[in-house]
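Office hours follow-up: a student asked to see two folded examples consecutively, so here they are.
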Amino acid sequence: MTTLAPPPRRSARSDERYTDDDYRYVDDGHGDAPRVTRTRRAPRPAQTRLFIPGHAGRRIRAWQMLSLVLLVVVAGRVVQLQVIQGPELAAKALKAVMTTKELPAQRGSIVDRNAVPLATTVAAVNVTADQTLIPRGKVKSVARGLASVLGGDPRAYEQRLVGDRRFVYVEKGISPATWQKLLDLQLVGIFSESTTKRTYPAGPVAANVIGFVRGDGKGGGGLEYGLQDQLAGTPGSTVFQRGAKGIAIPTTTSTGTDPIAGTNVTLTIDRDVQWVAQNAIAERVKFAHADSGTVVVMNPKTGQIYALATVPTFDPNKPAEAVQADTGNRALSQVFEPGSTSKIMTMAAVIEEGKANPLTKITVPPTLSRHGKVFHDHDKHGTLHLTLNGVLAKSSNIGTILAAERIGGPTLYRYLKKFGIGSSTGLQFPGESRGYVPDPAHWSNTSFGTIAFGQGLSVNAVQAASVYATIANDGVKVSPTLIAGLTSADGQFHAAAAGKAERVVSVSTARTVRSMLESVVSAEGTAPMAAIAGYRVAGKTGTANRAGVGGHYQGYTSSFIGFAPADNPSVVVAVILDNPRNGHYGGVLAGPVFKQVMTYSLEHFRIPPTGVTRPDIPVTW
């Protein structure tokens, strides 16, 4: 009987195994079942494999832990990017491809009292270049093309065309028609940028009132500067997606805000009166070889200024070519000693205080000594017997001092301040000078005498005109105005507030002084050349010493200020010439300009003659 071999056994050594081949059957001859005997054989080597340290279970758990850690880290990063930093990163990504461009607001226009444009904004084009698109060999030909249309030296354009800049300005503010000429040349690398340009249709007319706009689009002088906030408006913006070259992608939508146009400004200035005044004073400045000249035209009842002319002037369309000193407004910024035109304030004060009247007799000696100072009149004379009216008509300094002594210094000072000397005109114009009159506490021994006849104090041209407007308006001073109103972006017109009214002297005093001023323009006065046929004209000449370097007098300031019709004044005209060298008397130099401007103004505003003969007030006694 055959017995199955026992199962294999593991040897004491873990790397040896025994199989049935390791046993053999031995028949011991007793007839029993054969005896199994183990035969020792050399163990078989184990199969070759990679060596991995550690237990297999531990390795699996390690891999699981590592995978879990990696999963947590990745998940955390995803949460950080999408949840915590998501909005910020999305905004940065959007910003990288989005561009915000400012949309400039349309600057408000400036028009005269009849809506005639004096400053307006028109469409324009900036010429730009992409230097990276212009081959070296094409630079000269492109520059020549630019010069053929824009003018200038082609070599100057070449410098702007060479480089690695994607955007550079070649020329700013050309007209659309000029750009079309460039476009027709098909110049490589040359592009356009839509913009606007400030333009002044009347050129130099009222330039010193309006001012100009700088290259950055902001006001650089005059009302353009003073009303910058109102004229500029509010810029808008547009946000759009850009492509690789910075060009807007047409298929994307843009967002932003619309610009709000600036406020339109209506002035009290009348362009035609302004033009006449500028031309008249320009001719006279040239004739007199004067440093400068100024004309103020205003309505005495409303304070509205019709003209504010000064020469030399400039063209606001070409501010870069202007002389800096000529861009300001001398009518407000330049002060001067008024001289004899100031005497009407002294006369008004004396009459208002009841100390004299036009027929009051005043003996005028050849000279007058006061506190060691000897005063003279402009022409030598013997003893004169003048009425108070004659003192004004003959413009006697000595007679004026004698009249002023009837009221004294403090009273005279009080009236000068009431007339507005040393105070702002209220126009709030950039660069305005207030003028000056010293307080009596600071007067020297000679101050009273000189101030009485118009020296030792200073005024600007508008203040000087305002004094005469006060007398013309029955003694009521109305603050001068330059702004008639503002028109907002929605088209609504808002009238400016009326000038502040303040009584200075009584109606009776004002009308008395007006009658006295008519004698100045008569054959017996100092300015018969200012008379206008058919009209009653009142006015006063002025010839004052001009303050020079170091406080010493050098040259003269010649002036004439008046109004018409004298019995119902509608227009005041003030004419001032600074440092004339061909003559110096105000009546001779400024009188003719007054007559020219006043004659035109009376016709332009259709003011008829009154037909009433002026009163004949004696000049002498």
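And the second, which I mentioned at the end of office hours:
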Amino acid sequence: MVQDDKIRAGREAYSAMRWAEAYSLFSDDESFSRLAALDIERLGDAAYLLAKDNEAVQYWTRAHNVHVDNDEVGRAARVGFVLSLTSLLSGDLSRSNGWLARIQRLLEEYPDCRPERELSRLLMAIRQMFGGDPAGALPSFDTAVGTGTEERDADLLALALLGRGQASIALGRVEAGAASLDEAMISVTGGQVSPILSGIIYCAVILTCQSVFDCERAREWTAAFDGWCRTQPDLVPYRGQCLIHRSEILQMGGDWPGAMTAADRACEWLAGRSEATVGRAHYQRGEMHRLLGHDAAADQCYDSALRQGVDPQPGRALLWLGKGRAEQAAAAIRAACGSQNGAPVRWADPERLKLLGPSVEICLTAGEIDTAASAAEELSRWTSEFDVPLLQATYAQARGTLLSATGDREEALAWLSDALALWQRLSMPYEAARARARLVRVYRDLGDESSAEVHRLAAEATFDDLGAVRDLSQLVTPARGMASPVAGLTGRQIAVLRLLASGQTNREIAAELGVSKHTVARHISNIFDKTGVSSRTAAVAFAHRKGLLS
């Protein structure tokens, strides 16, 4: 009776999405021997959601076999579907094929299992789509949408909508495809889809959004999915390749500590997976180190990416550029572009966009104006193909940078101002600060020191908050007559000192400045280092002596 109570408690924990509790209760030695097939299946789910993937496979396999023994073919097929799908996503194609063949054989004799039969067809359509035939797969996804709707099967419907969205986007029907992705995600965040498939759908939606540069949609659904995840404290929702995408999204939004954590975890999770995926994880970690000024660590990560077959560009070229090796950086970015004067090798290749903006910057610094102009021209063609703010902002910044280098400063000012507005709309603070840094130079050249200083101070504050030390060091210094920094303190650090002097806590300072407590703590540490003090009181005394509080 005690064990029966544990099983009932495990079911309650599972229903309440308390995965660690459900796992503990179901996996108890005495309880496990008395579990029904559906409870074994639930134990597999809990294990998977706690990132115990190998255990999950064992439990699901056992559940499948017990379902078969009990003639519960529909349930057996669904568990087999999950085993096939998760094996496919982890790169274990042989295991995935085996499970697909098994559920197809089971379903041949049971025509009443209509949703399960559609799920097996869905797997075949997914393979067809990623095998390069989205047009051939699309009718199967449409049929599955119909079946999922008629049968009121939330899992089938959400997966079918995902597939239809991905296939439509692959065929150039971006608006219709995005609508299908949105509908799938509404089901996920609304709690209608099983937890296992929810994470899979989310990751696929984000990847698809990024493939068409729709970072706004990717970030909106990430925020919504985060809210859903917060209701399940035990859940390990992001793993493997999803962590790479999450790191990129957090980086865009200015959460660099979060982005670094996600990149580190991606490298850990993906160890032993496909080389290209592992390489992309190391590249993303290298990007975070580069942005934070950790040159040696960035170089090591780029080396790791290269060993896994992933070209570490444009990151490595930008690292070299920041260290004054412009010619070497230009040679690297030309090789990465792989074509003459920046013309595309493969039109509409999403991996190419990340090369073009940096190519303009690097080639201009190296004096290769024609190559930079060709890269900017290619970007303009991208903006006509994909009318999304991310591409518009990238092109506007490249165009403004090119015009400022060739002496057309009034026109450069207009393009760079447009770029700044777009980066701000996208809530991408680092890119906005880089646009401001370029505007500083243009305004200086036009003799408008007041406007230059406004942008310089804003860029300085953002770089300082993010920890972008190299960008901060490369900002144009204040013009003669402008206030000079004391003891090397930045404007943001002086602002923190003033708030310290007013008696505010780190939390209050963070709220006042609109930054995280982590950022405030880093600023205070840097203030101590620069002023040679070791306490908040001593730092405030230093500020009084230097007249920084007036």
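Two things to take away from it. The two ends are 75 Å apart (CA to CA). The CA atoms of residues 11 and 22 lie 7 Å apart.
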